[in-house]
User: Which sequence fits this backbone?
């Protein structure tokens, strides 16, 4: 349980995209004196540009990407009352990016990628401190890598939670008494001091980890939508905002592809029971969604999430008939390739599964490598189907209530269901459909279950 009134506020890429957005986010910070720790993403678009640079580019493309980054960040610098104060430091970072991108053009590496990509958050946090300063608010820029110690799994590093707590208590907690602190999401450092990243979208996770380490009273995630909706409003305009949702439900949604929260975000919040608020920095008055331990009258159907680009592996083994150990063998191989299984169904002689792509790596490389396929093929016949979509219905008590089947499958009559997972968790019911049908499936189900 929290021991303080501290609120950790995280602002996503669109909330720090430009001068206007940064000032709106500053308004949000200043509207509550309990917000004393601010965690920022890179300005919208910058991480993608940096990832492209890290891939190693020809001179001309490199110049173009660097120009784009410079343009986004200088659009903010130029609107400051005293742009000169910060120019030198921004230029120094841009020079670093240039140097590192030249190195990446010669030889890429995951360590170099993380070093390069970290500059998005370093820049946005630097600019935000200056925005605050010009508004006569003193704040301190803090390099989160001093406390966010991680493994050296570059691109998808795991935080050392115990060390983070210890370092946050000694290095951050005392400063929070004195000043507003602005720091970076997404980035960390491994034991040798090299920069790491937590995987794409990892800033939410940073905010939650810091909230846990500092025993905050709340973690606010400010983004460009006013909370969590019954489903993506871009697909279903009739989607409704959910005012209160439990950790379990929200975690299911994040895991199954709702883009509002990074899937790992809620783990620290759940561990220490800190409520998470999700709102829009563009329109804070519109309210948002509170994610907490318990809600009143949990509904049978809460929400729906859609995850595209799913790959289904079907493994056929004739030896599996009455055999033991085939699944163990399959899981062993997957474990050796650091892959966790997402959905799975089995029959007597085959098993069908999808790979868990949760918190994909910073560079987004595929989990399904040739090495993995080769190894699986030595065991059984492997069939790979791409371009499927996973639709997940999130709810409560799903596997024990009656009538779920009729409500759900009635709406799905015109569609092909490639695989169904139901019964292992009472919080979700998932299935795979052809990628091209995904939106129609979601629309039809939403009509049946939520409208
Ligand atoms: N800037 C990083 C990304 O785009 C981290 C984040 O935004 O959460 O993935
Ligand atoms: Mg983000």
Assistant:
């Amino acid at each position: 349980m929290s021991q303080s009134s501290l609120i950790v506020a995280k602002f996503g890429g669109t909330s720090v995209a430009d001068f206007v957005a940064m000032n709106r986010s500053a308004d949000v910070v200043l509207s509550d004196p309990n917000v004393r720790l601010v965690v920022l993403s890179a300005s919208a678009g910058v991480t993608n540009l940096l990832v492209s640079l890290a891939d190693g580019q020809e001179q001309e493309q490199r110049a173009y990407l660097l120009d784009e980054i410079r343009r986004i960040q200088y659009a903010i610098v130029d609107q400051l009352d005293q742009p000169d104060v910060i120019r030198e430091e921004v230029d120094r970072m841009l020079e670093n990016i240039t140097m590192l991108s030249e190195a990446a053009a010669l030889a890429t590496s995951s360590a170099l990628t993380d070093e390069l990509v970290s500059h998005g958050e370093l820049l946005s946090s630097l600019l935000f401190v200056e925005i605050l300063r010009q508004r006569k608010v003193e704040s301190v820029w803090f390099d989160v890598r001093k406390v966010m110690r991680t493994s050296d799994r570059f691109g998808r590093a795991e935080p050392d939670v115990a060390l983070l707590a210890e370092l946050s208590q000694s290095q951050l907690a005392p400063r929070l008494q004195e000043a507003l602190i602005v720091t970076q999401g997404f980035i960390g450092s491994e034991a040798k001091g090299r920069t790491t990243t937590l995987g794409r979208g990892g800033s939410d996770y940073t905010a939650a980890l810091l909230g846990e380490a500092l025993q905050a009273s709340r973690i606010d995630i400010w983004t460009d939508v006013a909370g969590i909706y019954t489903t993506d409003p871009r697909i279903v305009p009739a989607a409704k905002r959910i005012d209160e949702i439990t950790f379990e439900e929200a975690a299911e949604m994040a895991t199954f592809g709702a883009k509002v929260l990074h899937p790992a975000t809620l783990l620290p919040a759940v561990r220490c029971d800190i409520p998470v608020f999700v709102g829009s920095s563009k329109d804070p008055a519109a309210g948002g969604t509170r994610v907490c331990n318990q809600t009143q009258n949990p509904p049978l159907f809460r929400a729906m999430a859609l995850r595209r680009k799913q790959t289904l592996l079907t493994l056929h083994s004739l030896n599996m008939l009455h055999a033991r150990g085939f699944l163990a063998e399959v899981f062993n191989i997957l474990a050796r390739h650091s892959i966790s299984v997402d959905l799975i169904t089995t029959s007597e002689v085959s098993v069908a599964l999808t790979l868990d792509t949760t918190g994909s790596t910073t560079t987004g490389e595929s989990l399904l490598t040739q090495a993995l396929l080769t190894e699986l093929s030595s065991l059984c016949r492997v069939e790979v189907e791409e371009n499927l979509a996973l639709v997940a219905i999130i709810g409560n008590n799903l596997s024990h209530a009656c009538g779920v089947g009729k409500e759900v499958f009635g709406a799905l009559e015109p569609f092909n269901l490639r695989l169904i997972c139901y019964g292992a968790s009472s919080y979700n019911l998932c299935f795979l459909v052809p990628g091209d049908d995904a939106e129609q499936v979601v629309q039809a189900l939403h009509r049946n279950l939520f409208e």
Notes: Residues 19 and 76 are 5 Å apart (CA to CA). The first strand starts at residue 7 and ends at 11.
